[in-house]
Amino acid sequence: MNILFIALNSPSHFAIWNYLSVEALIGHINGVFGSRKTTCKILYCNSFDSSKPVIKEINSNKYDLIGFSVLPYTLELLQKILQNINKIKAEIIFGNQLATYSPEYIIRYAIKNKNINYQNVFCVLGEGEETVEQLINVMLKKSSVYAEIESIKNICYYDGLQFHLTQLQAPDLSKLHYPPKYDISIRSQNIVEKKSKNKHADWVEHEYFISEDSPKINRAAIQMQLSRGCFWGNCSYCTRSSFRHGEKWKSFGINRIEKDLKNVILKLKYKVIEFSDDEFFGGRDKEHITRINKIIDIIENINNKIEDKISFRIFTRPDIIYKKNESGKNKIIKETLARMQQQGLDRIYIGIESGSCKQLSRYNRGLTEQSILKSIQILKEINLPFDCGFMLFDPLLTLDELIDNINFYLKHDLIRGNQWFWRPVIINKGSTWGDDKFEIYNKGKYNPNTMSYEYEINDKDVKFIADFIDLKTKETREQLYTIKQISKTDLKFNNRIAQVAKKIVEKNGLIYVNLIRDLAIAFKNSNNEIEQLKKELLTNFKLSNKM
Ligand code: SF4
Questions:
Q1: Atom of ligand 1 nearest to the CA of 234
Q2: Domain limits of the chain?
Q3: Domain 2-171 part of CATH 3.40.50.280
Q4: Which site in 43, 68, 224, 504 is 20 to 30 Å from 18, CA atoms measured?
């Protein structure tokens, strides 16, 4: 059985982050069915230009099953491909975030093409391994997928009149024994640079070229996941729980983890790993610490076999590092982190998201300011550099909360950990705030391409600042994003180009943080003159006609 996977990537974000889902799926299919029963091919597509070979491959009619991985901001690319499909015999499945949160939209769009029959089109909701395995089993029996679709989990399908969902259930990770099959070719290019821009409807197509001088991504860093989901899973804006159909944090089995790490480090020779688990530890209890120690043992064994130790980075929450009244566990976590550092942990990402108590509680982070501050203190004590997430603007942010956030950020000198502090919260479908029944803010139109809702900030002064900063940063955003990617090519910043890139993004970040602070304070202290002040700002910054 021939299977083609097409990984669609946003035309404007070229980070290598997003290939893991297709690679995980292929690893599972290869492991379960073997190469005698199935062969899988991946094509990558992030521009109209790169969609041409994809369309040609689909129309070659060599495939029994074609799967699209559809991430946010890829809908127009998908539409372009779907419009150009000729008569094909394959079953078509769509997976990943957009297929999970906009399945009806995608199926409706696909069957607009008269060459595509609704009985051959399905969306896979959430993690796809078990669903695709079930689907392939049906196909290998030569049965009709459509006739048996009710028996396959996590599917959205159309019966010609209406849409249906089959049983929703996240896969049991302990039964997913086979690690991803990483595609090295996609990671072996130099960083691409933008050559030109063409307007296509409401989006911009980027053309990239490979620069001889740009730093190589090749074998610099690879993303891996040793678990999925988050033990907290309750933040107001987060979709992780709904993507897992209500399941929280789960680990892959330790044997799979060992196989995966050995493959990546010993066979594929990667030296830097970004563990992109939603949350790396899963908790602070004995079972979680035991698991982490087993993972460190595996890494230590591997490190002993190679010349230079690997380096790696993990994601976690502040309340994994510190919790009030749990001094014993705090000590154990600190020691565990130190042990991880000895084996190559050189950076940690902790989601702070807000420095305002009221906003933290609105975000339902389940965190106190104290746990955040203490966790930062511990990371500084053990000399472990950290990145920290912030989501400054939300529909209900007040001027006082904005000032609290800035004071917190500047007081704790967080520029090294976050250079884009003014990011707004995105209200995604699948999150608590994206739920139709959630009404504390004024929800706008749903955009199936971003799987998010528009919203307006209630406080008109905060809204002015958010819009103003958005317009100002737009001018250099893409360049800075590129520079940021360059800074990440060496997480230890030993490489001179990465060091310079990091300095540039930090300097740029501070300019805007200070600007936001000055605006917030000026608005807070002015009474009647505030509207005049806004007018002058827009005139001076030549933005009058844009806001
Ligand atoms: S801590 Fe992160 S992954 Fe967990 S619920 Fe909150 S935003 Fe989602």
A1: 5
A2: 2-171, 214-389, 391-425+459-547
A3: yes
A4: 504
- Which uninterrupted H or E stretch holds 159? none
Q: Was domain 214-389 assigned CATH 3.20.20.70?
A: yes
Residue 396 has pLDDT above 70, yes or no: yes
158 beta partners: 163
Q: Is the ipTM of this complex over 0.85?
A: yes
pLDDT for residue 436 is more than 80: no
> Using CA atoms, how far apart are residues 497 and 490, in angstroms rounded to an integer?
9
The Cα–Cα gap between 312 and 425 comes to 28
Comparing CA positions, the residue from 229, 246, 34, 241 lying closest to residue 133 is 34
In testing the pocket of ligand 1, which one of 225, 240, 241, 372 has its CB within 8 Å of the most ligand atoms? 240
Ligand 1 neighbour 317 (Cβ under 6 A): yes
pLDDT, tens digit (0-9, with 9 covering 90-100), for 119-164: 999 999 999 999 999 999 999 999 899 999 999 999 999 999 999 9
d(CA 358, CA 247): 28
| C-beta of residue 109 within 8 angstroms of C-beta of residue 102 | no
240 lines ligand 1 (CB under 6 A): yes
Does ligand 1 have an atom closer than 6 angstroms to the CB of 232? yes
Which residue in 365, 387, 348 sits closest to 232, CA to CA? 365
pLDDT of res. 381: 96
Closest CA to 41 of 74, 90, 111: 90
- 152: DSSP letter: S
Residue 545's pLDDT is what? Answer: 66
Residue 430 pLDDT more than 90? yes
Helix and strand counts by DSSP (H, E) for the chain: 17, 19
